[in-house]
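FIELD: query
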Amino acid sequence: MQKVYTHIIQISGDVITVEADGVGYNDIAQISARYGMSLAQVIRIDDQKVSLQVFAGSRGISTGDQVRFLGHPMRVATGDNLLGRIFNGSGVPLDHGPQLTDNLIDIAGPPVNPVKRIIPNKMIRTGIPMIDVFNSLVESQKLPIFSIAGQPYNELLARIAIQAEIDIIILGGMGLKYDDYLFFKETLNKHGALSRSIFFMHTASDPVVECLLVPDIALAVAEDFALKGKRVLVLLSDMTNFADALKEISITMEQVPSNRGYPGDLYSQLASRYEKAVDFDTAGSITILAATTMPGDDVTHPVPDNTGYITEGQLYLKNAVIEPFGSLSRLKQQVNGKTRSDHRTIMDTMIQLFANYRQTVEKQSMGFQMSSWDKKLLIYGELFEKQMMSLKVNIPLEKALDLGWHILAESFTPEETGIKRELITQYWPR
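FIELD: result
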């Protein structure tokens, strides 16, 4: 039976406080205000005092309004009817389509029992050489994209959404500019990927609590599809906006701040979302790619710093390319030995030679005389940056490996690469 309370004891920003009992954390309540009905979510319980974040803001709510607790957390519809649809952070349609009320599931549930998981062992091909060759994306991996504001991380996510060999794409946008929202929509529609995609979009002008709901809704829907055998890729942008929303609410709640004003449970809040990545033993999988902007390009900022302890590597997006040094996929060894016999050799050799190229560039900038080996490294580095690192390059893994051999052959003799003779015999361009 739903209980109704008619006395709001405090209104602070978009947070209201009532005295109630039998209420659970994250439960949803309806507020009957003079100007209509509003939804709110329980964000704190202190004995009989229950604090709720009002989705649409507290404007128009008075202390005498009715609060009815529904007895369950936020729910979202799921199923094939969601494909091709666009919703806001509360699950309300933004595409003028019908509101879905069937197959409702709770959001923000616990991560999957480890007994039901299997060790990740399948590669997700993206058509991007800096990922496929050097930092392979593995099914059920959780991988952040560390970047700074202004870098094309949304463009990279959109391209992965279009090209990834996956069944379903779920895109969760947090604090997006309206232009970014239109970009995702138009790009995926143009390339025919919208029909296998589901959008949950929160823009900077939307209520802050919806920003917190986006990852939970996206991952709840992803889990439902994965249990039905689908391979799901969840793209989240931007997790720093999510953390900033946490900070804003914690300040409103007058919680003791931690590092740089973020709440002390920031790690747990991030981990509870990232740990939803899973490869089910007898069903599908959930893979998470999440853009995380670094204020001031500072990797020690609390958001990327905590993220790095949770995830299985990271991709660094710098100067509009995926930086080879700093980027890491800790699960790549699970799959790149199963692709082609030269994959690991090309990966290791090209990165080692590119590191030598970077040292040569420093020597050149300081006025040192260039040796014949240095000149070869300069040729190699320019080819690598143009033909491998550029995000404009769009080729399958096998062609990317062949391209790697051609770049090596244009710059060095077979002996100078240090590659084993049997691989040289099999793959070196004639």
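FIELD: remark
The domain at 77-333 is CATH 3.40.50.12240 (Rossmann fold).
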